[in-house]
Amino acid sequence: MSGMQPVRGTKDLIGDSFRRHHHVVETARHVAGLYGLEEWATPIFESTSVFARSLGETSDVVSKEMYTFEDRGGDSLTLRPEGTAGVCRALVSNGLTQGGMPRKVFYAGPMFRYERPQKGRFRQFHQIGAEILGAAEPLADAEVIAMGWQIIQQLGIDEGVVLEINTLGDSVSRDAYRTALIAYFTQHQERLSEESQDRLAKNPLRILDSKDEGDRRLVAEAPTIHQHLTPEAATFYASVKRYLERFGVPFRENPRIVRGLDYYSHTAFEFVTDRLGAQGTVMGGGRYEGLVGEMGGPPTPSVGWAAGVERLAELLEETPEPNRPVAVVPVSEAEEGAAIDLVQLLRASGVPGEVAYKGNLKRRMERANRIGSQAAIIIGESEVAENVVIVRNLADGTQERVGLAGLLPALAAAGVVDAMLEQMVEEMELAADEGGADDE
């Protein structure tokens, strides 16, 4: 087909793809509420300095992947490439760093990165995320990880997903580790990729993230941070692992998980799977100490994670069922007023309903089948006169004439009304019975 197409690296969420996306976000939103998180929504674009500070001027995201532009006032703005920086900026700019800590925040929304589109990776993508701001205790690390694991379980995608954890230690541990890495990689400098040679001078921890095969062989023999942990850092890490066991979250240790920026500390973790090919991480995060300070706030120990909605949605075994409204079908234009009254009654009762707009009875029934209705309520001239309707079960073709008081029970019998509405029906029937008893 000709016509305009979506921009490369973006996609429309319609039908099955939207229902999968919506199911992931709503499931995460529900679980986050169980853990006491409050949802925040921050702007889709921020001052460029928000991300340059949080991600590092030399990071690939800042140097190569951000959508940055100058607005008409001459300010440099950037479409957000991730969510944590905006949450930390909002904490500071809304004056929330003093009282009421820790703040437990959930967020969901689109992010933007200019990178080569591939399976599971888009230029506009969506993330859910959680941050516990102002909590220095290892229990916070374990709880935020447990929440992520519960989301994965409730989505039914936990099979084949593994939690990998590591520690980045405290600042003293990292300084000692950085010195050890520089000494090790300097011995093999001529075998490093050009990019990793550059990182050796600026941030040797980022060499551990290299995708270059030659680098990876060297990384496999590199020292680990566990050999350089202070007693305090080792105790913190042991506590996180103990709490994870108490929460019932299985994990394995991976000493190669790192975060390149200086304000990351202690816990680093990823939920990984081999079901997405190269894009193996479905949720990742860790503890950070200095990010709120970068935004002009006080030192605020925090921990959190982010997860790609598209990747989680791809792992779903089944697409959630579409909304299947009850079709209210007037036999002719003369009954449309009664049909409108009836569909509004259904909606007020929590039952989704739709009126077929035009055509003869056959065409209106075709519309009912096309939208996947489980039942159709047919209203003709005689039904209006007698204050009844015809309820047709579209699954098996059976139908019955019922009065309006018996409509919800008839829909329940047809399998249309959900459990909540079935309870409402029972209460209506009980009230009717009690009214009858009073009449006697």
H/I helix tally? 16
Given helix and strand content, the structural type is alpha+beta
Largest sheet: 8 strands, mixed
Kindly report the CATH topology of the largest domain.
Answer: BirA Bifunctional Protein, domain 2
Which ranges are low-confidence, i.e. pLDDT below 50, for 5 or more consecutive residues?
none
What is the CATH homology-level superfamily of the largest domain?
Answer: Bira Bifunctional Protein, Domain 2
Strand order of the largest sheet: 1-5-6-11-10-9-7-8
Q: Give the radius of gyration.
A: 29 Å
Strand content: 15-25%
Q: What CATH first level of the largest domain would be assigned?
A: Alpha Beta
Q: Span from first to last CA?
A: 70 Å
Give the overall shape, derived from the CA principal axes.
Answer: elongated
What's the pLDDT, averaged over the residues? 87
The assigned CATH architecture of the largest domain is 2-Layer Sandwich
User: How many DSSP-defined strands?
Assistant: 16
Q: How many domains?
A: 2
Helix content: 40-55%
InterPro entries: aa-tRNA-synth_II, aa-tRNA-synth_II/BPL/LPL, Anticodon-bd, Anticodon-bd_dom_sf, His-tRNA-ligase, HisRS-like_core, HisRS/HisZ
Catalytic activity: tRNA(His) + L-histidine + ATP = L-histidyl-tRNA(His) + AMP + diphosphate + H(+)
GO molecular function: ATP binding; histidine-tRNA ligase activity
Binding site for L-histidine: 82-84, 113, 127, 131, 259, 263-264
Walkthrough of the structure:
It is a single chain. This protein has 16 helices and 16 strands. By secondary structure, the protein is an alpha+beta fold. The chain folds into two domains: 16-170 and 230-315, BirA Bifunctional Protein, domain 2 (2-Layer Sandwich), CATH 3.30.930; 326-439, Anticodon-binding domain (Rossmann fold). The strands form three sheets. Strands 1-5-6-11-10-9-7-8 form an eight-stranded mixed β-sheet, sandwiched between helices. Strands 13-12-14-15-16 form a five-stranded mixed β-sheet, with helices on both faces. Strand 9 (264-272) and strand 10 form a beta hairpin. Helix 5 (138-154) packs parallel to helix 9 (231-247). The model has no long low-confidence stretch (mean pLDDT 87).
